[in-house]
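FYI - complex with nicotinamide-adenine-dinucleotide, inputs then prediction.
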Amino acid sequence: MQILENKTALVTGAASGIGKAIALRLAGVGASVAVADLDRSAAVPVAAEIAAMGRRAVAVEMDVADEKAVEQGFATARAELGLIDILVSNAGIQIVNPIESFAFADWRKMMGIHLDGAFLTTRAALPDMYRNDRGGVVIYIGSVHSHEASPLKSAYVTAKHGLLGLSRVLAKEGAAHNVRSYVVCPGFVRTPLVEKQIPEQARELGISEEEVVRKVMLGQTVDGVFTTADDVAQTVEFLTSFPSAALTGQSFVVSHGWFMQ
Ligand code: NAD
């Protein structure tokens, strides 16, 4: 018997990068997985990969910043796979700019995806988890930037700090219903989100792309190595199957020593 046999997980932003690695890893230990992303067609190959592993999966179209789309996406996932036991709120984007030239529309977009998205998906998942106090696990993908600041990332740092607050409140409200809540905080992982930042930061900071990688991204790690999507996915797997509420409300930094709590 696999550790997540008979459990259903919904992972947002699961068509790419960290979310995809999490979806595949949870399926690898027995979970049925709803692969949610902005564009359903991008989620289909991940769902197909899971199905090929002999697990149940559904590709779900869901803009996490849109209340109706979140409700509809959960209804689809539930209809296909049953009640949700595990939510991984992972969908995210990055927009970098100094505060004085940060467009308000970009600020709101960042808050919409990172914070509205975390709230709306949590609210949609809780009725399943609270039913008969059957319980569940909610994991927010934060960042080292949930604890640390970097120039140019005002909206990202603000939003990622905000997830700690939501997670801690859920840890307290959810405890009576056996719901546990965590934030997993990766260092730099070389996904499309980070690839896009390398030339942007080089331009903004007036340094080469190689220096952005070596100094800005990896300069404070203990080994000069990028965190991998699987480093993050393994941490998520550990938390989904942790057997008590001992760790609830905590955040876990996965950063090759860049940030130590
Ligand atoms: P990615 O760009 O590879 O994947 C993000 C996914 O989210 C994409 O599939 C995208 O379509 C989806 N998405 C974007 N907006 C969405 C929306 N409104 N609704 C639903 N899905 C949406 O990025 P990634 O690097 O895998 O990032 C995943 C999460 O990890 C993000 O929350 C990010 O902030 C966080 N994170 C990433 C790093 C890193 O270095 N890559 C570090 C720390 C934290």
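Strands lie at 8-12, 32-37, 57-61, 86-89, 136-141, 179-186, 251-254. The pocket of nicotinamide-adenine-dinucleotide is lined by residues 12-13, 15-19, 37-38, 62-65, 90-93, 113, 141, 143, 186, 188-189, 191-194 (CB under 6 Å).
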